[in-house]
Amino acid sequence: MMQDTPAALASPEGATDIWRWIRYEFGGIVRLIARSDTAFIAAINGPAAGVGLAWALTCDLAIASERARIVPAFGRLGLLPEVGTSWALTRRLGYQGAFAYYAGGEHLDAERARELGLVHEVVPHEELLAAADAWCTRIAALPPHALAMTKPLLRAAADGSWDSTLAMEEFAEPQCFTTADFQDAVRGMLSAR
After folding, report:
1. Which of 6, 12, 14, 42 is most exposed, with the fewest beta carbons within 10 Å of its own?
2. 21 three-state secondary structure
3. What is the per-residue pLDDT across 62-117, written as a single tens digit (0 to 9) for each?
4. What domains can you pick out in the chain, each with its CATH number?
């Protein structure tokens, strides 16, 4: 009987070694992306599956070339959506859409992924990095405090009630009024009139 026990289960740590590896190696990246004040842009240039798909779906924006494919390989491999993918899929596709994506195993081309809200924009393959860079430039032009405050607000709003989201906005917005960036922007708008 013991000779049939998988090595991971026979070790002193059992499957927790694997859990630790997934949590800290892969989960650590998605936590960094989601919790950072920095915006992350995914530029998908080919197949995105497994952990790569999880990382792309966790990014703040996902831009895809027309060669991109969103690949639900989990089910066929006997795995489940990993590293936050189930959270991202159910929010974008709803429960039934996420289940159909998982169970159906259909590869999605870039345009279909855009229609479903899995990617924000589809561009010609040769323009992918330039399109991602253009988003980086737009985001970098935002006042740093605005991005740092908006990113966690929007992430929390995905799971929060309307009342709690409204309360977070009511608390955060007055703080923005006190920044030099806001005051400079208002002066600029008034002088342009």
Report:
1. 12
2. helix
3. 999 999 999 987 777 777 888 889 999 999 999 999 999 988 888 999 999 999 99
4. 2-140 (3.90.226.10), 144-192 (no CATH)
